């Protein structure tokens, strides 16, 4: 491996570590911001995805003709 390829490999590895550590540090702040904006609780998955769940009351659901409660 020549020095140019080795230098590029080290640079890419360092950038990946920096980006992933920055994303991990930002998750609680991102979750809090989403919760404030959505005015509801949010969860963050292991891979950093912030999720909110709103129940739907505008779509009636029936299973075998039996209505399920919405909301």
What does this structure look like?
The structure is a single chain. By secondary structure, the protein is of the alpha+beta class. It has one helix at 3-38; strands at 42-44, 50-52, 61-63, 66-68. The protein has a two-stranded antiparallel ribbon. A two-stranded antiparallel ribbon has the order 3-4.
Q: Which terms summarize this structure?
A:
71 residues; alpha+beta; two-stranded antiparallel sheet; elongated
Q: What does the secondary structure layout of this molecule look like, with pairings?
A:
Layout: H1 3-38, E1 42-44, E2 50-52, E3 61-63, E4 66-68
Antiparallel strand pairs: 1-2, 3-4
Distance between the termini: 61 Å
H/E series: HEEEE
**What value does the average pLDDT take?**
75
As residue ranges, the low-confidence spans are none
Quick synopsis:
With 71 residues, this protein is of the alpha+beta class. Helices cover 51% and strands 17% of the residues.
